[in-house]
Write a structure and sequence with these properties.
Elements (H helix, E strand, L loop, with lengths): L1 H7 L16 H6 L7 E3 L2 E4 L1 H4 L16 H19 L3 H7 L1 H4 L11 E2 L5 E2 L8 E7 L4 H17 L3 E7 L4 H11 L4 E4 L2 H6 L8 E5 L5 E6 L5 H13 L1
Parallel strand pairs: 5-6, 6-7
Antiparallel strand pairs: 1-2, 3-4, 5-8, 8-9
Length: 241
Amino acid sequence: MLAESVVADYKGKARFVSENYGDSQLAKRFGVTFYPVIFVDDVLIATPKDFYNENQNAKGRYIPFKSTASHERFRADLTRMIDLVLAGKKETARAEAAPGKMETVAALPSITITDLDGRRLSREDLAGRAVLVEMWATWCPPCRGTLGWLGELKKRYGDRLAVVAVAVQSEEPNVRKLAEELKLPLTWTMGTPELTRAFGDVSAVPTLFLFDREGRAAGAFYGAPPTLHGEAEARLAALLK
């Protein structure tokens, strides 16, 4: 495996570990359900869409992965991340890592969301507010914590902020049950194929998208790393100051 050969170059300073996502604590923290995914410590640096995509016009960084050029790009990126972590610069590595740099939606999609009570919400209805869109799942342990945190953000910012919780890979009765239990001031909706496609290739949950008051993309956050709350809250505060 290419990643293993990169690690071997460090002569014992780094260790290669291969995990099944069903047994991996990192996979559980980031809600990973598709592979391959590459971490350096707990820094997520590459996801499936970097390596393959059913779309013939795919722009993943290492597509086609069989090419020598793609291999060299991957080796260089992985080496850079390992070097930063070994130098004690994990936050720099996290800032440069794939999730924050991946191609994502440039603006809030022009689609209409129907919440669990049948109310319809369009992009026009959200105009003038910052918008947080959370992709989550009932089977994802970290998602419950991020939903609670998002509820607190909504309470703090009131009408200046809209929070849409999109349930993916989940059964509607289970989503309704959890929404009733949590009683959070969020817009709860089911992740229909049309809705999830509009936000790109989401390969892990929770995934959080932030949009400014004009509907422009202002950030994307993947999984539930320790820095999630601080980074997202700082960007949100800057938008609403």
